[in-house]
Model the fold of this input.
Amino acid sequence: MNITKEQIDPLNAVLKVELSREDYQDKVDNILKDYRKNANIPGFRKGQVPMGLIKKQYGKAVLVDEVNKLLQDNLNNYLTEEKLDVLGNPLPKQQDNFNWEADDLAFEFELGLAPDFEVSLSPKKGIPHYKIVADKKMIDDQVDRIRKQYGKLVSQDAVGAENEVSGTFFNEAAEIDHKTTLELDKLKSKKALSALKGKKAGDTVTLKTKGLFKEDFLLPSSLGISREKAENLDVEVDFTIAEINKREPAVLTQELFDKLFGPDAVHSEKEMRTKIKEDSEAQFQQQSDQKLLNDVTEKLIETTKFDLPSEFLQKWMQNTGEKILSEEEARDEFEKSEKGLRYQLIEGKLIKEHGLELQFEELRDFAKGFIKSQMAQYGQTEPKEEDLDAIAARVLSNQDEVRRLSEQLMSKKLLELYKEKAHLKTKEVTYDDFVKEVYG
Done:
């Protein structure tokens, strides 16, 4: 066997593979002998079928199969030995009227080669790195929510401005019959507030569903209907009052601190506010990190310029999927996947240049850390090391889990690289400003 490479241009090459009969004939003959031993052909005893008949019936199929196996194995070895960085797989060139009876067989395969390029983590304009802070208003709101949640209900004779009113919504035609509790400070409709004010248990008021709440998501849960049904719902519903309460905010005592944060973790309102700020900003960090990953990815794709063997890749996509695509379908598929392919090449370059390749020990430790955090949510804060090892071994025996954890760990490594090496511009914002700026 002889394999040679013809370089067409920097991104395309052709491999020429020449086989002589001695490369494959022994293997073909041995398989045909096995076929002969087991062949059941009418008119012949088992194992006594003439070899000529076996060759006539099975010879070409066996030859083609064995040659293809030989080509596949040797092509893979050649690409590895020559350290050729290819995109897709070698694509056989069409050869009309191929003569499988010839002593020497010749094949050609098109190659798409990965481009040579440089990746810079220092664009001229710094990439925003958001530091999301919990401002005073957010902390105040959280303290108010806690005091309200753990406060006590005091029964009232009549509905006041900030009461909680329990009752039943009813509209027979709209199939609404649902018990709920209304917090009046969440109502938007002034007419509804006016209708409810001063009413007593047992009274019924008629309310319009349209514009009833400040937040649209409260309507379906209050009426006991689906979100789809609640959307643009504009009907009148009767609300029969069953109970009226005023919620008195809880006093911030050591007992409440211990219930919220654990024994002796917090001793005063000031420490509580500090704890809320720290916990909130730790949660915001995940969103900030994800935004940074997305922004660096987009910037790298935008600023890292290189060509791709587009024609080869379209042809490869056209012929190697579950179904054969038309040229137009293959072109559309390439256009949809080009951005992702470019980032895969960029990411691969960064991983290689900065030594970020994953080691099994790292993946195992990462899996154990993930398992430990999951167990902590169920109160198992100090699991035994042997238990973690056993669970991690089971998890890593699942290839889908290995792929998922590998992607998470690599994202973590890339994030650390970007924070250390990339040209970032720290931008301190409140959570509300972050949401407005990032999500509009």
